[in-house]
Known about the structure:
Layout: H1 2-27, H2 37-48, H3 50-57, H4 60-63, H5 68-77, H6 79-93, H7 101-104, H8 127-149
Helix pairs in contact: 2-5, 3-8, 5-6
Amino acid sequence: MKETQHATEGHVQQDATQAKQEKIAVQQNNPLHGVSLEKLLKELVDFYGWDILAAAMRFHCFQKNPSIPACVKYFRKTEWAREKLEGFYLSRFKRMPRASDEEYVLPPRQRTFAPGIVPREPMVLTIESIELSQAKAASSFKARSSRRSAPRRR
């Protein structure tokens, strides 16, 4: 009986180890793999600065007395904000390809990228370029919304 129990436990442990190794292998091509939230924030702040991040992300923690420890605390508590920050890191800082529809529903840390795709140089952003991009997005959203709510002609 004990031999069977030990064999079963060993098999379960081996399956868990194999599953973990497969997951790590899939994640190896994700630029977020192995990057702590603190390191990610430091990279973004060093490259863009607090003003650019505040304009682009619109998080209060970037605007009022920003600090790495305070921001890390906020992002650890607020999952949607952390995912938005990680998405910004992937798309603007690492300039990775846009996620497919299937991948888009996953949090950024769980997304995969095809082997051979490597991060590129960070996108250069200015307050003006961010405001222009946000204005375009708002205009596009307004246009789509007005088309949906307009009465249909028969």
